[in-house]
């Protein structure tokens, strides 16, 4: 049981709970997810099974698209509706034009302070653990990449946004910072992750599917986790070389950039290993070897 499950996580369920459901159905503990979704959020959660768990980082680093509903005129200790909320007295009711004019401030590489209730480590402890004990946590701003923010709908106090961003972005922080920039406060009311890389809601399965359909029918091949990497097709003798940890000669036609990772696939297009291209030596040096069943 090896592969990827593209799950449409419902709101109110933790990412850990989804992993537990899959692990129980698959009969294995070798299950992990690629990018946590808060219980409030719904949408795409990629779950990896078997040796495909070694590909989690490749999925986490892919660009993401979110649909967010921001509520202006309020603040929260969690920066979303699950926390203790307070109304902002005398909060100005901004116009659509004012909201649109503010959005470019949050595009590009920006510095973002994570929410107090987050998984960021502070002094060896999770920030949310300390926050639940009533402690104020000093969190440092971190650079995040936001590729675009589009205003889809505005009817005060609600702002509906589509956000394209990189790994590590907190949409709760964006909602909070947008509200503060507008001078009225803001928090996240609803969040849907629509996409991670090529994995979208359109090709996702539901929690009910996990319970009623054979998992093997729902699994996607591990090679999809590294779809952005160049590929090199192995010959049958290459598999023995990889098992022994030996580098492969890269043909003259091999045009991969220096030190780039290359997905090594068999004749059926199934992922067998990841290798680093040594341009000077014309070698593909194995870095991660899977070899579930190499075929020519």
Total count of strands: 18
CATH architecture classification of the largest domain = 2-Layer Sandwich
Mean pLDDT: 88
Could you tell me the strand content as a percent range? 25-35%
Main sheet record: 9 strands, mixed
Task: Explain what this protein looks like in three dimensions.
- This protein is 20% helix and 34% strand.
- The chain has 8 helices and 18 strands.
- By secondary structure, the protein is of the alpha+beta class.
- The mean pLDDT is 88.
- Strands 1, 2, 3, 4, 7, 10, 11, 12 and 13 form a 9-stranded mixed sheet that branches.
- The protein has 3 domains: 3-62 and 198-224, Pseudouridine synthase, CATH 3.30.2350; 64-193, Pseudouridine synthase; 229-289, Archaeosine Trna-guanine Transglycosylase, Chain: A, domain 4, CATH 2.30.130.10.
Which helices and strands appear, and what pairs or packs with what?
Blueprint: E1 3-9, H1 15-26, E2 31-33, E3 42-49, H2 56-60, E4 64-72, E5 74-76, E6 85-87, H3 96-102, E7 108-112, E8 121-122, E9 125-126, H4 127-132, E10 142-155, E11 158-165, H5 171-182, E12 186-196, E13 199-200, H6 207-212, H7 215-218, E14 231-233, H8 236-243, E15 248-249, E16 261-265, E17 271-278, E18 283-289
Parallel strand pairs: 3-12, 14-16
Antiparallel strand pairs: 1-3, 2-3, 4-11, 4-12, 5-6, 7-10, 8-9, 10-11, 12-13, 15-18, 16-17, 17-18
